[in-house]
Amino acid sequence: MKNYITYIIVVFYVIFSVTSNVYAQTLDDLNIGGGAIDGTISVSLTPTNPQPNENVSIKLTSYSTNLDQAEISWSVDGVEQKKAFGEKEFGLVAPSVGDLVSVQANIQTIEGGSAQKTINIQPAGVDLLWQAESYSHPFYKGKVLWPIQGNVKVVAIPQFITSDKNIISSENLIYKWKKNGLVIGDMSGFGKNTLSLTGSIISRPLNISVEVTTLNNDMAAENRVTLSSGDTKLLLYEDNPRYGILYNKIIGSDFVLKNPEVSIVAEPYFFAGNTKDFISFVWSINGNKITDNKNVNMETFRQEDDTKGVAQILITASHTVKTFEGSQISTKLHFGENNSNTINPF
């Protein structure tokens, strides 16, 4: 009989010792009287993980008592903000990173019961940066695009600051990565703030999201980014004997020779990889392949004597490994006024 009584006491303790957390906020239920409604009122926040200085909506829900008939008062950091019957929702602006705001809802039901909900909101933030393994020339100042079936890395940079102004290291947080809504289990976990992906052969946008939490789940932040693969490009530039490659001026569909010869450079953009080692080039003039070209991205053209005319130059760049990657570009070299096509690669 003695063992039976002890078992009942242990079960009673376990049942009434359960607590719950709501992501970045902690939620405590306190019974002030009217025990029949204790634990029957739930709280939801929109958004679930508020960003710093973001508008937050708090809502009370209960299926055991009519909250429309209950008198509800809302307080922020101990100061009452509003009080009315049926006041089930409350809105406020989340504090900045490192600050904490405590919201309290006091409920007096029509049945005479009472309850109190305390929600501590302590926002955190996380930025997402991505970088593709994609080629561009060394003087390109823009962001390289993610090539089809290429590699891309996404890095989460959290801003987690406690209320006593201590910064939580990114290595001491838990990361849950998702791709198109599905958790990437092998990339998620403690300290895993980097996500590496390889795109498919079919170009479709990827929706990447991350949820970052502390070990005790009292702070959380989330963010998302959409990654879209870009097309490869091929642009032409003049290699000036005095100034070098003129990256500040693209050769368009027409180019007028001002000197007897010109060197043209074909620069590839957004091919998979960080070098040109896997990119092959084919040059042709007026439909004829230039056979003496050593598969390089530069060719020199020279006007013969005093001939005049227009020559059609076509350049094709292809990836030697990812054969589906390629790009073409052409230009017309103008070196006179008649239709003779006497211009040769040098």
List the SSEs and their pairings:
Blueprint: H1 2-15, E1 20-22, E2 25-30, E3 41-46, E4 55-62, E5 71-76, E6 79-85, E7 89-93, E8 101-108, E9 114-121, E10 125-132, E11 146-147, E12 151-159, E13 174-179, E14 182-183, E15 189-190, E16 194-198, E17 206-213, E18 220-227, E19 229-230, E20 233-240, E21 244-245, E22 254-256, E23 261-269, E24 279-285, E25 288-289, E26 298-303, E27 310-319, E28 326-334, E29 343-345
Parallel strand pairs: 11-19, 22-28
Antiparallel strand pairs: 1-2, 2-9, 3-4, 4-7, 5-6, 5-8, 8-9, 10-12, 12-16, 13-14, 13-15, 13-17, 17-18, 20-21, 20-23, 23-26, 24-25, 24-27, 26-29, 27-28
**Could you give the count of β-strands?**
29
Q: Report the total helices.
A: 1
Binned strand content:
over 45%
Query: Measured on Cα atoms, how large is the radius of gyration?
Result: 33 Å
Can you give the mean pLDDT? 83
Integer count of domains: 3
CATH structural fold name of the largest domain: Immunoglobulin-like
Envelope shape: elongated
Could you give the order of the helices and strands? HEEEEEEEEEEEEEEEEEEEEEEEEEEEEE
